[in-house]
Amino acid sequence: MRILMLATLVASATAVAVGYGWLWWKSARLVRACLKQGIQGISLSLFQTAAYADRWSWELLKNVQHYEKIFYVKSGQHVRLVVLDPVTVQHVLTLNASCYEKASFVKILEILGNGVFSASGNDWMNQRQLLSPTFFMRELKDNFGIIKATVKDYLECLCTHDTAVVDVHKIFSTLAVKLIYQVAFGESLDDKSAFMVYKRFDNYLHQRKHAFCGPFFNLFGFRWKSWGSVEDETYLLRVIRELVSTRRQRSSSQCTKAKLAIDILIEDLERCEKSGSNVVLDNSATLLLAGHETTANLVTWAVYLLGTHLNLQDEARLEVQGIKDLDMKNVSQLKVLGMILWETLRLYPPQPLIGRRCIEDNTVNGVFVPKDMEVIIPVSAIHRSVDLWGHDSEDFKPYRFANGINKAYRVPSSFLPFGSGPRTCIGQSLALLEAKTILYYMLKHYSWEISPGYQHFPDVTLTLLPRFGMPILLFRL
Ligand code: HEM
């Protein structure tokens, strides 16, 4: 018996040693590949990585522009190349895109499963071909009436007195959940349930980020999950299952509207008889998350910037007052509002990091990238680079976009709020349409200032959000 226990102990110790040795060898190989090409970097221990969890946040991200144009960060078993040069970025995202898949940090959101955001290869291509047409402008036209009515009703009763203090981050997040429910799933959701969905996703993202940066995450394939994140995930999956089942019953009976993302997914599942496949659930979770977080953050930061640049708020209001009733035609005439949104996306990109994992040795812009290397593109730092955007790169100046997006910067691929290449965002037209509609009604009915209680703390989970919310002083016009 003792011999058996000893043998088990020795075998386990050997397995741990071999496992660590293998991980060490793998990361040492990637570091060597960097050093051989003269690429310098920093190594963080597992515990340092945990300590960086917060600082990986905003300050670190926007200031990496002061480092080399390309450098590596080794944290635990992962070696990541941080790339700031737009030409190299273009190689990774577009020209050599087939050599890359999504980075490991995307995979920590298990709730997204193998949906279009996280999948690779043919799985990704099939889902992308199915889903992206449902977000084309011509399809969105059919939904504009619903988007407008939902925004108008929700924002009109935001402030029942002459003035109020409201947290617009909470408000826009709840509204964005209601909108994606309508546009992607054809269902309406009451305010309380929409708030719960937003709050659960918010907690889930926060907890998964901290688990990912913690020392025990993914140790020998075991992914650490806190009790809170399991609870949030279970709640959200239940909501999504209910949504899919409601839609399934409805699609067989009284579905009349233009094709929605959810119907396309269900039809495909039934046509191909993909029994046991989670494609509908995974993509429903993906659309629900990707479709509300980013848009809500965009509008929140736009309100922040207009609350700190009151002259531009007045200019935007003047433009809005020139349009009596918003429709699909005149929404594109909101030029000042359009520039404000582009400039907000530049300074506060809702997705401030894009990550890839190299699946095949390749050379990008003269740099050899070996298989298994992760590449991080810090969008926020590229957007604030003095070299690319000029000496006023930190200032809020929407008119830099007056001659169109491409004329606003010096080097192609310097502006990546929606990514670039084959995996560019499928929801950008919807996001901009929703953002313009929300700001249209905000400017029409209210003026605002930032509340003295506001604490400026942009926080990076998967997206960039104000950690302590965005309280504003709202005045009814
Ligand atoms: C302001 C709002 C938005 C921003 C800034 C944004 C940003 C992005 C970015 C940067 C990517 C590329 C990620 C990468 O390359 O790794 C992306 C992908 C994606 N976005 Fe958005 N997004 C927004 C709104 C939306 C909306 C409203 C939807 C929902 C319909 C959506 C659905 C997706 C999906 C499904 C992908 C994955 C596409 C693929 O991998 O093929 N996004 N988004």
Structure write-up:
The chain is α+β, with helices and mostly antiparallel strands. The protein has a domain at 121-344 and 384-413 and 422-476: Cytochrome p450 (Orthogonal Bundle), CATH 1.10.630. The chain is built from 16 helices and 13 strands. It has helices at residues 2-36, 46-51, 58-63, 86-95, 121-131, 137-156, 168-185, 191-213, 227-252, 261-272, 279-308, 310-321, 335-347, 379-383, 386-389, 428-445, and strands at residues 41-44, 70-75, 78-83, 100-102, 163-167, 353-358, 362-364, 367-369, 374-378, 446-450, 458-460, 464-466, 471-476. The strands form 4 sheets. Strands 1-2-3-9-6-4 form a 6-stranded mixed β-sheet. The protein has a 3-stranded antiparallel β-sheet with strand order 5-13-10. Strand 7 and strand 8 (367-369) form a beta hairpin. Helix 10 runs antiparallel to helix 11 (279-308) and helix 12 (310-321) runs antiparallel to helix 13 (335-347). The radius of gyration is 23 Å and the shape is globular. It starts with a helix and ends with a strand. 41% of the residues are buried. The mean pLDDT is 87. The structure holds protoporphyrin IX containing FE. Protoporphyrin IX containing FE is lined by residues 116-117, 128, 135, 286-287, 290-291, 294-295, 298, 350-351, 354, 417-419, 423, 425-427, 430-431.
